[in-house]
């Protein structure tokens, strides 16, 4: 064999040997292969009807089969995102913590001493394995901002943890896909997916999670309600499954299972009250169908959604309004605002138009329109049919890409720059900012508006209301924003009493005033 051929032969032999050694080392160290790090299978969904008898072994079998797919997640972050005190009974309302305070009242939280910005804070949550390559689903808020993620498996030895990284995350569904960067010996089980669209009120469900650091806890309940517009972000609510299965701090990101032990939801938040910081029988899970549809995008690290640059009126169209618009029925979404320079503005849409069809599909209401738009790939050209001045017209527009970060920033600026709102009772109110909430030591998750001005001799003044009072309830109905305060106040007829519960100097004060 010539010298040149000999050299080439040994070069190839060394390359093959290097690959083989590399594979052996990776298998010994439990590292995922390069190919597995790039792909994640979308779990199959079982849509077969839920039926069959329930016996003494049913829930035992579900727990035995599915607990191994559930993991405990511990995080470290420099931003104040997941403190252990918040997850483990520190007095924080999960609804306030995760969804911006759109829920029930929550007790006052003790003031915390300042700490250096570079000090690590710890957090905890739950996740469930969906792929043997080490892919795990959890809530976005569990891993958001985390510098270190540690995962503990069921049956693991003391201090046995595995590192993980964030692959992709989505604020709107509060979901995140993470992957183990070091693998346990012996392989991983995979959770099975059910069909969340199948779930109805009264269906049995099982929740598994890590409440208060009590790992792999099983609770049982039923679906209390479906289609609750509860999750998501301001102006973009997402439908949730409501359940009375006990969900507590630390359960976030864990699976909600149907009677076959299939995942139908991801436990996300609870509604709590001023006396307790834990479960009172009202919990919420993100429907798994919504998360499953995002998996291919989560794998790429970026979720893209459509936007057309409009705001729509909330609530269903009344018969009178539909007739005034010239509609044949009460279906449709009324455009209340058009973003300058956006796709809708460029297409010629105007405030007051009623969209009845989007890309050839009928629009039943505002929520349906929002769902259609965000589910459309950016760059797609679609026809939109509207009623304007009692006439049916069609426009064509190109869907743009939704930027949630920018949208949230605009929302914050609008709230900050908003002018005081008159109430018709001699007082002006404004939104409650985080700074105001901290300054007044307002109970977490409570407060609809702060009083900024009171006219002398007015109904508000005669009732003793003063600037800096925070309106918590109107006629015994909790309020969480200026619009709710206005709506409840306007319900009161002249001469009838209006009952207000306000927050003043660290205490709740009940006030009665009368609209003139």
Please provide a written account of the structure.
The chain is α+β, with helices and mostly antiparallel strands and 516 residues long. Residues 1-38, 79-117 and 410-418 have low confidence and may be disordered. The chain is globular, with a radius of gyration of 27 Å. Helices cover 23% and strands 33% of the residues. Strands 23, 24, 25, 26, 27, 28 and 29 form a 7-stranded antiparallel beta sheet that branches. A 6-stranded antiparallel β-barrel has the order 2-3-4-7-6-5. It starts with a helix and ends with a strand. It folds into 3 domains: 55-303, Thrombin, subunit H, CATH 2.40.10.120; 306-401, Pdz3 Domain; 418-514, PDZ domain (Pdz3 Domain, Roll), CATH 2.30.42.
Helix content range: 10-25%
Number of domains: 3
Query: Which CATH architecture of the largest domain is right?
Result: Beta Barrel
Q: What multimeric state do the chains show?
A: single chain
Helix tally equals: 13
């Amino acid at each position: 064999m010539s010298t040149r051929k000999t050299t080439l032969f040994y070069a190839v032999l060394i390359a093959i040997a290097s690959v083989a050694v590399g594979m052996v080392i990776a298998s010994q160290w439990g590292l995922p292969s390069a190919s597995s790090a790039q792909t994640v299978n979308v779990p199959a969904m079982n849509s077969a009807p839920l039926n069959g008898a329930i016996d003494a072994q049913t829930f035992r079998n579900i727990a035995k089969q599915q607990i191994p797919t559930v993991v405990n997640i511990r995080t470290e972050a420099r931003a104040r995102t997941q403190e252990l005190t918040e997850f483990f009974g520190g007095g924080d309302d999960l609804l306030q913590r995760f969804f911006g305070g759109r829920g029930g009242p929550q007790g006052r939280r003790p003031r915390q001493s300042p700490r250096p910005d570079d000090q690590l804070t710890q957090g905890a949550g739950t996740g469930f394995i969906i792929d043997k390559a080490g892919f795990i689903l959890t809530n976005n808020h569990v891993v958001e901002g985390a510098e270190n993620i540690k995962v503990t498996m069921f049956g693991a030895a003391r201090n046995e943890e595995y590192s993980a990284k964030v692959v992709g995350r989505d604020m709107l569904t509060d979901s995140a896909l993470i992957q183990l960067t070091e693998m346990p010996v012996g392989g991983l089980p995979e959770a099975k997916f059910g069909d969340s669209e199948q779930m109805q009120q009264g269906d049995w469900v099982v929740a598994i999670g890590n409440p208060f650091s009590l790992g792999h806890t099983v609770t049982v309940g039923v679906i209390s309600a479906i289609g609750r517009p509860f999750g998501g972000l301001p102006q973009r609510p997402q439908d949730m499954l409501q359940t009375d299965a006990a969900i507590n701090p630390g359960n976030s990101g864990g699976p909600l299972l149907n009677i076959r032990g299939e995942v139908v939801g991801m436990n996300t938040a609870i509604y709590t009250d001023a006396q307790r910081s834990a479960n009172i029988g009202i919990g919420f899970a993100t429907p798994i169908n919504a998360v499953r549809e995002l998996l291919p995008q989560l794998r790429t690290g970026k979720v893209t959604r459509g936007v057309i640059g409009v705001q729509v009126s909330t609530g269903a169209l009344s018969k009178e309004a539909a007739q005034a618009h010239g509609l044949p029925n009460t279906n449709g979404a009324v455009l209340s605002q058009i973003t300058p320079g956006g796709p809708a503005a460029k297409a010629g849409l105007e405030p007051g138009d009623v969209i009845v069809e989007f890309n050839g599909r009928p629009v039943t209401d505002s929520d349906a329109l929002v769902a259609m738009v965000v589910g459309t790939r950016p760059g797609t050209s679609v026809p939109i049919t509207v009623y304007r001045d009692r006439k049916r017209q069609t426009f064509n527009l190109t869907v743009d890409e939704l930027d949630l970060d920018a949208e949230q920033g605009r929302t914050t600026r609008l709230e900050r720059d908003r002018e005081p709102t008159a109430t018709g009772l001699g007082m002006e109110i404004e939104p409650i900012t985080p700074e105001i909430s901290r300054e007044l030591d307002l109970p977490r998750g409570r407060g609809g508006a702060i009083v900024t001005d009171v006219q002398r001799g007015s109904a508000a003044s005669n009732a003793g209301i003063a600037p800096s009072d925070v309106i918590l309830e109107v006629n015994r109905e909790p309020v969480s924003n200026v619009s709710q305060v206005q709506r409840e106040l306007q319900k009161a007829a002249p001469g009838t009493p209006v009952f207000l519960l306000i927050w003043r100097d660290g205490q709740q004060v009940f006030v009665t005033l009368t609209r003139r």
